Amino acid sequence: MLKLRPYKPNDSAHVVGWITNEEAFRLWCADRFENYPLSPEEFNKMYENKPNDLFGMIAEDNGDIIGHFFVQKLQQDRYKFGLIIVDNTKRGKGYGKRMLLTAFNYAKTTLKAKSITLSVFDTNEAAYKCYLNLGFKETGNYITHTFFGKEHKYIELEYTPAFFKEESLAKNLASRVCTSPKSPTSGDLSAKLTERAFK
Ligand SMILES: CC(C)(COP(=O)(O)OP(=O)(O)OC[C@H]1O[C@@H](n2cnc3c(N)ncnc32)[C@H](O)[C@@H]1OP(=O)(O)O)[C@@H](O)C(=O)NCCC(=O)NCCS
Predict the structure, then answer these.
(1) Share of the chain above pLDDT 90, in %
(2) Which residue from 72, 137, 139, 181 has the fewest beta carbons nearer than 10 Å?
(3) How many CB atoms lie under 10 A from the CB of residue 113?
């Protein structure tokens, strides 16, 4: 059974171990981290220095750590997901889709989110197709990055509000969602979530 829980510093070795080459590293993190290979300590520094409204999540399947992403509150009921990654030995088996569906259900029921955005390189075929497959739409915003001698469009995608009205979403989830009963409204969102969530 797939469930979400808050990110912990000793998860970092798992996450950085899933990145097996520099191009995949850049496609995953854009310019969020400078140096490859990324060390577990550098990855944790990102969370130590994070803004209050950003928190990490880990997906586990029957106790095995299989994925990671962060959630950031942008404004009111608008949220952003980032650094989405699935264990490199478990890709293409539906875990990414299940992790994100579980995350969207969490965002809908607990955070009362009306919109989720993320950004993806057009050259990251598996990720780009995964997000479109889940119902993300392009917002029209993008920036261009150049790395490894090639231009990559970093495209912003958004879940349409209609998605969050779909009462059928929860029924379609094959996995359990661990949510807290209340939505945080102000203050240190990550601390509140760590206290209450994922029980
Ligand atoms: C993006 C990622 C999280 C997807 O996770 P995953 O477990 O491999 O994806 P799933 O098996 O759930 O597949 C979901 C959908 O993605 C698409 N997809 C997945 N792998 C694909 C591939 N190799 N080529 C094309 N489309 C692919 C398909 O549409 C698939 O749906 P389908 O099985 O109904 O056809 C994973 O590939 C990953 O960790 N990539 C490296 C990190 C990264 O670049 N993250 C994105 C940052 S923006």
Answers:
(1) 77
(2) 181
(3) 24
